[in-house]
Write a structure and sequence with these properties.
Elements (H helix, E strand, L loop, with lengths): L3 H9 L6 H10 L2 H15 L4 E10 L28 H14 L3 E4 L9 H15 L4 E6 H10 L4 H10 L4 E3 L8 H7 L6 H13 L6 E5 L5 H17 L6 E6 L14 H14 L5 E4 L1 H4 L1 H5 L7 E5 L3 H5 L8 H10 L3 E4 L13
Parallel strand pairs: 1-2, 1-8, 1-9, 2-3, 3-4, 5-6, 6-7, 7-8
Helix pairs in contact: 1-3, 2-11, 3-11, 5-7, 6-7, 6-9
The chain binds iron/sulfur cluster.
Length: 358
């Protein structure tokens, strides 16, 4: 019979728990019990009161996209009056601004823009690496964008990756995962690739020698079983790649200004889910909590198993959907300190920016 005590003993002995046991915890464990179990796994990797963070900016260089996900508030179809493709100068200004503040990580995120083939990206990322060298690091695109770009360029994902790598790309992100269950993707984003295609591309990224991450978004209309399927497939994938993905980040759906609508998940539900992720994903060193979509509540996540967070400076995708970004580093760090944590900056670039925000 499953009980919190028996699971506690097993986790303390570094044993794994099953999907069924995770489901049982979701239905039966109190918040305090979930915190305790999540911290047993967190402590395998991290000091109890230490959390790491970074200052990052998402650069939305185009909003033109043909994927038409019904939960998206950001995309515009080709020829839409308010569709855009930003210039390199526009992007450089945004990078310069964050570097001045001490940040060194950027994430490029656009859409499935049929006009942009691999040559565009090789030129863009080559220019960025040439201009900034090792002073910054960047996530070039999400896994699903990578699949799309390879396809419209008539390349395999592996071929596209070789060209990107030669241009200076080192990181792709696991974005575009949302819920990795085909039943979910058929309902909401049928043009955004299957679970199998997603993981095949993740494997290609790691085999090409690039780094990647895992993500998840909750709060659409997904069932508990679809959430658990996401976690189960992810843990299996991570096992099969010798723990190849750097981190796991879960954020929450914002239901405004899009076709799907709905309601936001509660702060409590996010924290409980984060604890489940930490308990189950025992082959991930880093579990990240989402300041972008949870604001101050995200820092409570550090007591529910998370060890790392972004201080986001800008992200039009989630802001269009209702996210409110607090551009105040000290204030966000204060939330972490109020929870009893000592936040430490985690530089991603090899030569961190000259100005320290600590
Ligand atoms: S979520 Fe991404 S892929 Fe889907 S419509 Fe929006 S921009 Fe396009």
């Amino acid at each position: 019979m499953i009980s919190v005590n028996s699971l506690q003993e097993r986790l303390a002995a570094r044993a794994r728990i099953s999907r069924e046991e995770l489901k049982w915890l979701w239905h039966n464990a109190s918040n305090e019990e979930l915190q305790g179990l999540a911290n047993l796994v967190r402590e395998r990797f991290h000091q109890p009161q230490i959390a790491t963070y970074l200052l990052m900016r998402i650069i939305n260089y185009t909003n033109i996209c043909v994927a038409k996900c019904d939960y998206c508030s950001f995309y515009r179809l080709p020829k839409a009056a308010d569709g855009y493709l930003r210039s390199k100068e526009w992007m450089f200004e945004r990078i310069d601004e964050l570097v001045e503040l001490g940040g060194d990580l950027f994430a490029f995120n656009g859409g499935f823009n049929p006009q942009l083939k691999i040559d565009y990206y090789v030129d863009l990322f080559g220019s960025i690496r040439q201009r900034y060298g090792e002073r910054i690091e960047f996530y070039a695109m999400t896994v699903v964008e990578l699949i799309y770009i390879a396809r419209v360029s008539k390349l395999t994902v592996a071929e596209a990756l070789q060209l990107l790598k030669a241009a200076g790309v080192r990181w792709i992100t696991g974005g575009g995962a949302e819920i990795l269950a085909d039943s979910f993707r058929l309902r909401h984003s049928p043009l955004k690739y299957t679970v199998k295609e997603y993981y095949a591309a993740q494997r290609d990224i790691l085999e090409a020698g690039l780094k990647s991450t895992a993500t998840m978004v909750i709060g659409f209309d997904e069932s508990l079983d679809e959430r658990l399927e996401h976690l189960e497939l992810l843990r299996d994938f991570q096992d099969s790649t010798n723990n190849g993905l750097f981190s796991f980040l879960c954020w929450t759906y914002k239901p405004y200004n899009n076709e799907l609508g709905g309601q936001e998940v509660s702060a409590d539900e996010y924290l409980r889910h984060l604890a489940l992720c930490r308990i189950y994903l025992d082959n991930f060193v880093h579990i990240r909590t989402s300041v972008l979509t949870q604001n101050a509540n995200a820092l409570k996540g550090l007591s529910f198993g998370a060890d790392d967070f972004d201080i986001p400076w800008e992200d039009e995708v989630t802001q269009k959907a209702g996210a409110i970004i607090e551009q105040n580093v000290e204030s966000v760090l204060g939330y972490a300190k109020n929870e009893g944590f000592a936040p430490q900056y985690r530089h991603v670039a090899k030569e961190p920016g000259l100005i320290s925000i600590k």
